[in-house]
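Tokens help. Our protein:
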Amino acid sequence: MSTKASQQVKQFDETNAAVGFAALEDVGNPIILNGRYSTITFEVDNGDVALGDFALLIQPHQAADFHVCISASDWEDEQVVVKPWVSAALQTLDASTKAAGRVEIGGCYAVKFQAKSSGADTAVTVRGTITSEETLL
């Protein structure tokens, strides 16, 4: 039988002050997890132009590339990720709007967010927490 030992919590606050519309761009820096966290809960704070896309990328190993985990209409598909929850369509988030999401990310090395606007440059901030419950065997 296993028992819950503790919950690790890591907070983050990442911003890109000028997300463009040509392609997805990083919102801040990668968030290093070292495989210790399993759930990411976040808020997206969008600037004065609606988003054209929003993505969550994972890096499975320190020497690996980042790979898109969720992007575009995947945010609306409950079959894409175990236990996803979003408060609005993140990929088309309206101007000057905030929305939240929660995704099970498993034991990856790092995650990062990317966004693109639907027109002119816009500021995008993503902030939240990453948690993991450790289990004693």
